Amino acid sequence: MKRVFLLGSVAFALAGCSTVTEGTRQNISVNTTPPGANCTFMRQGASIGSVNPTPGTLKIRKLKYDISVECEKAGYQKVTAMNHSSVAAATFGNILIGGVAGWIVDSATGSDNKYDAVVNLTMMPIANSSVTPVAPKPVADASAPLTN
Question: What is the count of structural domains for the chain?
């Protein structure tokens, strides 16, 4: 009975390993070329924060849902990048050591997820919409006499 209690205590103590080692929040840096853009972070259609101006960093809560990063700057086309949620490496060790209880704790807190730490975006200038007309080449006058 003591062994079962001891084993249970150890498993419970190790539960939530990713929660302890990885945490429930993460910094995501965003860089744009050129710098100085306003970037909004969206998850499930709701804004979760912004970086203005770039480069900059936003601390977000880790969840299983992807984040879109949409950046705008005057004179440049709007650009969007997806930062996909993936499984944190510590989660696998936690399942082996802490078992299902540890994984449940990590999953409930979001610490079993992670995002790319840096998002790099290149912005393209908006093409000039005013087109300069090209003068037509002069055409020979059909009524003028031909010279040889």
Answer: 1
